[in-house]
Amino acid sequence: MSKNKKRMIKDGILQGITYLSSTVSLITLLAIVLFVFGRGYKLLNFDLIVENFESQGYVADLFDDFIFCDCPATIDLSDDFYYSEKWGIALSDGTDLLGKNIIEIEYIHPDSPFKMVQDKGIGEEPIILRTDYDIIRIAFEDYPTALSRYGAKNMIDSLNANNSIREIEFRTKGGGVRGSILTTIYLIGMTLMIALPIGVGAAIYLNEYAPINRITKLMRSLIETLTGVPSIIYGLMGLAIFVPLTVNLTSATGGNLISGALTLAVILMPVIIRTTEESLKVVPDEYRQASLAVGANKTQTTFKVVLPSALPGILTATLLAIGRIIGESAALVFAIGTSIKDDVSLTGKSTTLAVHIWAMMTDEPANIELSATIAIIIIFIVVILNIIIKIISSRYLKQKMGASS
Amino acid sequence: MNCSIEKNIIVENLNLYYGTKQALFNIDMEIPRNKVTALIGPSGCGKSTFLRSINRMNDLIPKCRIDGSITYCGENIYGQGMDVIDLRRKVGMVFQKPNPFPMSIFENVAYGLRCQGVKDKIELQKTVKKALVDAALYDEVKDRLKENALSLSGGQQQRLCIARAIALSPDVILMDEPTSALDPIATAKIEDLINELKKDYTIIIVTHNMQQALRISDFTAFFLMGELMEFDETSKIFSHPKHQKTEDYITGRFG
């Protein structure tokens, strides 16, 4: 009886520990997701994804023959907006994607003199002022310049107090991650193009052709070790080997996408080799024997029977690799650099989404909001990848069970 | 290869070793053409090993070593200059567990031909159809040749494997307990098929089932501890075995 009770208490404690651990991990996960979403949801919008990071600035002047608007707004304006009837323009205070204070154009009356302005650049082209521009400053003759940091109210007051302006400076929003998304896609493509053939080829050699001896055993354990090496060490290697290599061979002048892809390929190769080898191992030996027994040679057997059977596993390896590329930052900081670019080129610098976060957080001041927003995008991509992996492996399992019954 | 001779597989003084362990001892045997030869014996007696040495499938096992000779159509298959690929096309094999490839029914049968480099679609279709007809499977699968072969039942899968082997028009078909994983009805179908096939092919079959050996084979070889104890016409082996051990085995006293 007492023995039984002891047993029960012991079981209860062990069970309690498992409950506790799963609760802790669940809470941790929730905390991360809540933090990221809580901080990042405000900035999450479509503009962020398609917008350039660099904003385009303009300095312009009004046309000489402008007429004051003196008109009430044709739409209902929010209480936060400041509207000037004289000029027919509504402004508001806001923050840009980088978290800096800006003055946003909220509304322009069709008859406003600001509807169309004259570029002070070379062409003196007319520019149609749109509501997705931010005003940096408006300068007047003999009156203090209205700067964006003084706020929208000050700017409207200054406008109302003047009958003309000297110049207006404004810019496109900027701060978007379009370039970083492009870079991420470029890097995924290039890295897989390098790492997949080599990784799968090496796995085929190890599993199908390699004799079982000391050298292949050593090779296996080396590959296993490589999967555990921190990626920043690979980054150093990329900086020491691939960056000079690409600088010498291409028009690149420093870290570039090619050196980044090469570095990532080296990181991924051991992962791909191991996952592929695992999937080759589970291909039943009967397939190989059956193929050889109908007079196929080794190469035909490997490429026509074994490899197609291992394809779902290789696909899983690929998706894991893509996840790794999306998430990698430390190695890329060295192998490419941290300067965010909109014009992505193979021989130029630019950042992936993860490095974009890095750049945002090392900026002064650190931009947690935008980082969290990018984190949401990354998490979203990773979740979708995981779902794809699940679907593929469950299909594969079904196929397997069909084979054994 | 000259295959007109009556006895087309001649085994002389065959010894086979797995590493240091000897699995076959001085086998001498002449396997007759266009007959069914059954190999019987208790587990681990070397009958499967012997079967697999006829089309050199034992080459796949590391540390497997052979001396002596197996002459097929007047040529030593372990001699120099023997093309193993060619040999396996002439000496087909059906395994214990049905092992179709995870591809379509059609592709399974066409696989061996494709590996030989046959590309002509009409020829492929003709050969695949003939092989399926000969394997008594065509009527069951003719409407779903494009379906995955793994969707077939076990018995159908095994007949598909036989079709895959005979699509290459071999001389000899080796069968390694082809019915051990099947139910009695599927087994009966395969046995009927073997009776049909022996008109055109030399069949060597390993079986654990005495009744099966009696039903389908013309000759029977009894293996024990890696030695060929007795080899004769099936009727003689089952009615008047020369060895006491043979009698004990076929009457079920051990095994």
CATH architecture of chain B: 3-Layer(aba) Sandwich
Helix-strand pattern of chain A? HHEEEEEEEEHEHHHHHHHHH
Output the number of helix runs of chain A: 12
CATH topology of chain B: Rossmann fold
What is the name of the CATH topology of the largest domain in chain A? MetI-like fold
Which CATH class of chain B applies here? Alpha Beta
Shape of chain A: elongated
> So what's the CATH class of the largest domain in chain A?
Mainly Alpha
- Rg over CA atoms of chain A: 30 Å
Measured between the Cα atoms of the first and last residue of chain A, the distance is 47 Å
Q: What's the count of strands of chain A?
A: 9
SSE string of chain B: EEEHEEHEHHHHEHEHEEHH
Count of separate structural domains of chain B: 1
Can you tell me the CATH superfamily of chain B? P-loop containing nucleotide triphosphate hydrolases
Average pLDDT of chain A, rounded to a whole number, is 87
Give the class of chain A from helix and strand content and strand pairing. Answer: alpha+beta
Instruction: Give helix % range of chain B.
Output: 25-40%
* Counted beta strands of chain B: 10
Describe what you observe in this structure:
The complex is a heterodimer of chains A (405) and B (255). Chain A is α+β, with helices and mostly antiparallel strands. In chain A, strands 1, 2, 3, 4, 5, 6, 7, 8 and 9 form a 9-stranded antiparallel sheet that branches. The longest helix of chain A is centred in the first third of the chain and has 39 residues. Chain B contains 10 helices and 10 strands. In chain B, the strands form 2 sheets. Chain B has a 6-stranded mixed sheet, with helices on both faces. In chain B, strands 2-1-4-5 form a 4-stranded antiparallel sheet, covered by helices on one side. The radius of gyration of chain B is 18 Å and the shape is globular. Helix content of chain B is 36%, strand content 26%. Chains A and B meet through helix 8, helix 9 and helix 12 of A and helix 2, helix 3 and helix 6 of B.
